[in-house]
Amino acid sequence: MKKVKILDFKLNKSIWNLLFWLYKNKFHFDGMSFEKHKEYVFWDSVKNIDWKASNKTNKLYTKVFEAEKNLDVLFLLDLNPSMNFYSEKLKKIDLLEEIFYALAFSVIKNNDNFSVYFYWTKEEKFLNYKNDFSQILKTLEIIEKFENNEKIDENRTKKILQKLNSHKIKNKLIFILTDDIFEKDKNLKILAMQNEIIFINIFDFLENNLGKKDKNFTFFGENNFLNIFLNSKKIEEFNAFRKEKIKKFERMLKKYKIEYIYIDTKMDSFSALVSYFSKR
């Protein structure tokens, strides 16, 4: 509950309402045949208000269309050891928790069901579909208690994508939260043909922005640290390499018609989500 209070404080009420409204307008679109009326709430689309029905009762009512069906939302959460990396105070795993919390809360508010698939080097854990705040608490508890000091498996995300395809996952909204970047993958392409996917890359700011001058870097893990000296030429080469690698990855996702969100530890995660959904 302490973690929830911290996240509630960061995700203030104004961002709550805006993010929920944007989520609803993105994934619960108007269309097809009229189904019923329901009382208007803040995040409903204003253009669906039925003024005639509202005038009769002195309450605002909005039209619900047949296309507005409940979604099944699947969160893929990468808990590999590198998620505990940090160059300042904020870890990547903290960002993952913030992003998950905001999105999962939006899912619940809009009466959708969600499940969580945790994966790391050699193991996975799955929580079944629910529309319940306890599912959020359970997820945060698993993340908070998670410890993994094993070697990072560079194919971990690809393996999960292959497994999802073997289970013939279809008609889901899938959020992938990871620091993983990889080459083109047929399983990701197949999964994107059957589902809507939003890929959220989570980075430490320093991973992609080392600066320009000679510098000593100290990288912290859970129980150790590493000192590295890099001259300006090496730094410039590294920054260019990372920039191109991310652009190449983003181009691949675009080709597969997968949405992409980049968030690092210098950014406000909630504002980044609002900005992304606002542009759609």
What would you note in describing this structure?
A hairpin with a 4-residue loop joins β4 and β5 (124-130). Helices cover 43% and strands 23% of the residues. It starts with a helix and ends with a helix. The model has no long low-confidence stretch (mean pLDDT 84). It has 280 residues and is α/β, with parallel strands linked by helices. The longest helix has 24 residues, at 232-255. The radius of gyration is 21 Å and the shape is globular. It has helices spanning 2-10, 13-27, 51-57, 92-109, 133-145, 156-166, 186-194, 205-208, 232-255, 269-278, and strands at residues 34-39, 61-65, 72-78, 113-119, 124-130, 173-178, 196-203, 215-220, 225-230, 259-264. It contains 10 helices and 10 strands. α2 (13-27) packs parallel to α10 (269-278) and α4 (92-109) runs antiparallel to α5. The strands form 3 sheets. Strands 5-4-3-6-7-10 form a 6-stranded mixed β-sheet, sandwiched between helices. A two-stranded antiparallel sheet has the order 1-2.
